[in-house]
Amino acid sequence: MNQSLKGKVALVTGGTKGIGKAIADKLGNCGVEVIVVARTKPKDNINKHYFIPADLAQAESAGIIAKEIIDTYGKIDIIVNNAGANLTPKGGYSVLSDKDWDNELQLNLMAAVRINRALLPFMIEQENGVIINISMNPAKQPIWDTTMAYSAAKAALNAYGKALATEVGSKGIRVNTVSPGLVKTPQMEKYIHKMVESSPVTEEEAMKSLMDKVGYIPLGRAAEPEEIADMVKFLVSPEAKYITGAVYQVDGGALAVV
């Protein structure tokens, strides 16, 4: 699999930390030329990925990114739309303003839509390419007081990915969605740290509380970012050449639906 990806060119949005960094590093270790996009340049770029600064919530960013990629590399083989975040306040429907809803949709849905729209013509011209959209379990299991708008945006991303896969499959492009559950990212570690600081609980108790909130995890732990990257690595490889239009849960068995 490592050799089969050598020489490919991949874009990973939100690729400087957490799941995105794990994906970028995993692909880079397979010989892929990796471009990462984020608002802030990472302090340490050990693998020396090509970096493009951009705020993907801004509509004009996608065209600027696409132009720089094509001007620099002349092609694009893999797109991983990983950028996303749950930005809205807690409290349910009554506390969510139109601006809150728009923020969630811009970052968690429209950023991927615009990146794909800007780069798909080049994939179609070369009659080959793979797109991976990174969703999250709340798309199928929303939590009313914390993920209402985020869940709606990610659910829309799932539906968009399926529709896009149907449209571009005959043109040699595969589109799949990877949907993690609880993952040990810097953002999650920060959340755990805040819980420990604000209440008399240990780190282990805080983690258990978080796991209980997202639901029972049969494997009994959160995922490492590298475990999400492993699924992405497989799906972008020729070994997955007959897989498209699918949503893969990588959640330790947490999602309580078939």
What does it look like?
- This protein is of the alpha/beta class and 258 residues long.
- It has two domains: 3-183 and 223-250, NAD(P)-binding Rossmann-like Domain (Rossmann fold, 3-Layer(aba) Sandwich), CATH 3.40.50; 186-219, no CATH class.
- 43% of the residues lie in helices and 14% in strands.
- It has seven helices and seven strands, in the order βαββαβαβαβαααβ.
- The chain has helices spanning 18-28, 61-73, 98-126, 148-168, 186-198, 203-214, 225-236, and strands at residues 9-13, 33-38, 50-53, 78-81, 129-134, 173-180, 247-250.
- It has a seven-stranded parallel sheet, sandwiched between helices.
- Strand 4 (78-81), helix 3 (98-126) and strand 5 form a beta-alpha-beta unit.
- It is globular.
- The mean pLDDT is 94.
